Amino acid sequence: MALSFPDQLVHSNDNYPIVDSKSVSGASFTVGSIAERDLIPQYARRLGQVVTVASQDGEGKVIAATYRYEGDDKKEHPTAPGVFPDYILDTDWKDALNWKDITQDVDGDGNIIQNAQLTADLTATLTVGNISQGRTFVAGTTLETILREMISPYIKPSLSSLQVSFAESGSVFEVGVEITVQSASWTTVVDSEGNEPTTFNLVGTGFSGQPINDVDRSLTALVGSKVQSLTPGIISWTLTAIGDRGDNLSRTFSISIRQRSFFGGTNYPLPASPTNAEVTEVIDRISTSRSLATSKNLTINSTQATEDAGDHFTYYIYPASYGDLSQVTQDGSSPVLSAFTKVGDFDYTNSYGVTASYRVYKSNAPGAFNVGTKLEFE
User: Origin, by domain of life (predicted)?
Assistant: First the structure.
């Protein structure tokens, strides 16, 4: 029959002492910190002593490390020449260099697994998890390390950035402008085994066909390299590379090419049926907004001088490809599309010699909008 055993043994007969394990020389100790290990009494210390330091993490999981003392067991006393104590001195016992980590792990069933180490280099013959074929683990690597690598997913490298630099500033340019390409630079991220991507190739004006050193992360453009587009769109450069496991990597850098839209006021007497030249005169005179837009949508305040002048008409002129205005809202609530008249479509040539069709809207009355009036065109 099973007997109930108390959590703590206490004396009921002083003739039979109870001995604590900490009072026995050579016992295996479990302590809560290195500091506690250092306080193990001298009479309980010995060469080969095993001590486990166990503590709990924030989730209550027990974290343990096991050490074996491999320092000197008997040395001459530092303050008593010729005296060799039969115990291990504090200076030696507390010296971290005298302790070897022989940590053991526990599996899901609570069985202790010795954290064995390789006694010779080992080269992988297959690709498994985060271990690539041909990777070598040096002698001393723990089996735990190898097993963890086997079950860990492989994360391929990447081209984390690409930047192309120009003599002109910005990343948005007007149609027709010539852009001088100067250089390119990029950064990379290694894969989960620490391998950099290789075999770089940069395609785009100024760089195509140039050899790239795998170590360098920059390249100077060929002398005289320029890009130009006569229509709105995107100009791109693409960097490619290959990962250690053959992954094809790429990163693209792009600039935008756009047409300008124009908003402002002028007292120039635009006739009912103007010519291209007369519309160009209006465009040259208005200056509140000359944005590189991608649509007819525009939100703007009439704050820059002329829209509210008594003899100045308000104009909104944009690429005809954007279509007609569907609405104009004043100060967030009042619909005022009827306050404008579509004059028509006209050819306009920008300062870079590119001609495009532009749609012209003109306020029906001069001085129609006060300074500070918010207008939203859609």
Answer: Bacteria
Look up residue 288 and give its DSSP letter. Answer: S
Burial class (CB in 10 A: 0-12, 13-18, 19+), 180: middle
Contacts of 119 (CB under 8 A, 6+ apart): 139
- Name the CATH architecture for the domain at 158-257: Sandwich (2.60)
Inform me whether the pLDDT recorded for 80 exceeds 80: no
Q: 226-227 and 292-293: which strand pairing?
A: unpaired
Buried b / exposed e along 165-175 (16+ C-beta atoms within 10 A)? bbeeeeeebbb
Band (pLDDT 50/70/90 cuts) for residue 8 is: low
179, β-bridge pairs: 227
Domain ranges of the chain: 21-115, 118-154, 158-257, 261-377
Task: Give CA–CA dist 228/234, Å, rounded.
Answer: 11
